[in-house]
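Field log, afternoon session.

UNIT: design team B
ACTIVITY: writing a sequence onto a fixed backbone
BACKBONE:
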């Protein structure tokens, strides 16, 4: 055993200095949001003018707070190379058979991009095969492909993963990474498919089709990398209504296919349908930025280890107009989380007594495009990955009110959950499990990029039991919050209640201080899917 780890865990003070808990105010939280979500930043789309303005603002704040550069070449910046794909919105695909063809209109019936970055792709009689959930999970004794050769086919698949009441079977009513649309495209690419179509339903996605429509009916981005998992010429979604119609052309029923897909004995079903059409796209290579600053730890040994805070500062830029508004300001998602991260950076930088481990503050890019900024950092870290003790992600603050309970994504997966529970006792709140596990929240924000490379990670969440706020007000704020998600109406509102966000800030400060001062590094729970990845990383 490392002699360092034999020191009693409580050697260092686990409660932060009192001034750390009083530093952040509602006005400080609001002020950064007001800048980042302003119309002049045009929604902070990757590599846009607004993106550059946001980068300059965050760098200026890091400098103002006295953080040290922790990006590349002695700067606060880590360049993130991207490829942008803008599909011609007049693109129309046809699905059918020898007897009948159905036209699918772009945006209305389907959205798409390409993983091969070709400006012109022609589909000629590409065969459609239904592959259920499109999952290969040996540990679950599940293989939707059954070794059927699907090379050169267009695969049609369900979103989400099989459900049951057994929490050990694909997380029961919850969701695993196998249920994420990103996985669906990855496995289809590995199988040599020509393309993949994910079927959208509100229940399986956890959000309305309009969310995908707004997200995908614009320039789409991916990391500029040559990868065997990025070979699909077509990566698409079709609406539930459109899917039912084209399946009916071949005598299939979506509900029946869904039932069949729930069985481990399922085998791929050739649909007797083909896809035809031409997809034109504008392809361009661009760069955006991760912005990283550091507060150096106080312990001569532990300062070479890090707690990294992340918050994505990007949003969707200028997109499809809704009621005359085309700027997707992204105030809640995620100027608010970025504001909290900036406030945390100022707090820890201002303390006379610094934590033992160092702290990194990373405003990451292109989260809305598939966690691209955090993914790039996780595979190209500016400090050794095995030296990163934990990641704490702040994605959307609580603007409703303080709560008697808290739920952090991933708290049940690592020792960080124990730390959160200890803080719950200090602050008199209960730690609740994910309130909507079926939505797969753990896999949908930047902390997941760190988990994939083995770093224990959690994302800050809120609670359900609001304290001291009229129920009608709570209902109003929550209903509006659901409606503005990924819409131009996600703007800064005067009636936001910052008391819940201040509660979250205190929790994160206490959590970070505790993690930065306990001698033992955080660890994944025994049997967790990321445990082995971490062990391999630490052994290097």
């Amino acid at each position: 055993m490392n002699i360092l780890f034999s020191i009693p865990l409580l050697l260092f003070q686990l409660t932060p200095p009192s001034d750390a808990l009083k530093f952040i105010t509602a006005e400080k939280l609001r002020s950064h949001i007001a800048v980042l979500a302003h119309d002049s930043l045009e929604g902070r789309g990757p590599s846009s003018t607004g993106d550059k303005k946001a980068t300059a603002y965050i760098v200026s704040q890091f400098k103002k707070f006295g953080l040290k550069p922790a990006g590349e070449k002695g700067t606060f910046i880590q360049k993130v190379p991207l490829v942008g794909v803008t599909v011609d919105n007049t693109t129309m695909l046809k699905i059918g058979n020898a007897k009948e063809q159905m036209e699918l209109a772009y945006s209305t019936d389907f959205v798409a991009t390409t993983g091969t970055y070709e400006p012109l792709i022609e589909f000629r009689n590409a065969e459609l095969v239904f592959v259920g959930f499109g999952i290969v999970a040996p540990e679950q004794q599940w293989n939707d492909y059954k070794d059927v050769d699907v090379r050169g086919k267009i695969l049609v698949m369900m979103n989400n993963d099989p459900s049951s009441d057994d929490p050990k079977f694909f997380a029961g009513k919850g969701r695993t990474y196998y249920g994420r649309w990103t996985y669906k495209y990855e496995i289809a690419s590995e199988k040599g498919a020509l393309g993949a179509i994910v079927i959208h339903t509100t229940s399986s996605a956890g959000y309305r089709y309009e969310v995908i429509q707004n997200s995908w009916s614009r320039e789409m981005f991916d990391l500029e990398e040559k990868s065997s998992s990025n070979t699909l010429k077509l990566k698409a979604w079709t609406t539930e209504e459109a899917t039912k119609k084209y399946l009916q052309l071949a005598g299939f029923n979506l509900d029946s296919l869904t039932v069949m897909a729930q069985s481990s004995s399922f085998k791929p079903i050739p649909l007797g349908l083909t896809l035809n059409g031409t997809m034109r796209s504008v392809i361009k290579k661009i760069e955006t930025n991760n912005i990283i600053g550091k507060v150096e730890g106080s312990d001569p040994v532990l300062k070479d280890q890090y707690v990294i805070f992340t918050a994505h500062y990007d949003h969707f830029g200028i997109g499809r107009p809704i009621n005359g508004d085309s700027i997707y300001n992204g105030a809640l998602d995620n100027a608010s989380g970025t504001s909290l991260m900036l406030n945390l950076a100022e707090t820890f930088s201002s303390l006379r007594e610094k934590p033992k481990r160092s702290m990194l503050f990373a405003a990451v890019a292109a989260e809305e495009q598939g966690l691209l900024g955090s993914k790039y950092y996780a595979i190209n870290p500016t400090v050794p990955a095995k030296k990163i003790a934990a990641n704490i992600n702040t994605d959307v603050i609580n603007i409703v009110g303080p709560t008697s309970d808290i739920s952090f994504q991933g708290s049940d997966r690592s020792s960080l959950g124990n730390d959160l529970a200890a803080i719950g006792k200090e602050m008199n709140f209960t730690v609740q499990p994910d309130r909507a596990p079926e939505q797969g929240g753990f896999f949908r924000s930047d902390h997941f990029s760190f988990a994939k490379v083995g770093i224990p990670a959690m994302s800050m969440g809120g609670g359900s039991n609001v304290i001291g706020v009229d129920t009608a007000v709570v209902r109003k704020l929550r209903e509006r919050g659901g409606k503005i998600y990924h819409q131009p109406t996600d703007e800064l509102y005067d009636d936001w209640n910052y008391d819940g966000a201040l509660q979250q800030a205190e929790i994160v400060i206490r959590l970070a201080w505790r993690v930065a001062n306990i001698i033992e590094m955080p660890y994944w729970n025994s049997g967790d899917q990321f445990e082995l990845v971490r062990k391999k990383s630490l052994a290097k």
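LOG NOTE: The chain has two domains: 14-82+286-539, 85-283.
NEXT ACTIVITY: expression trials, pending approval
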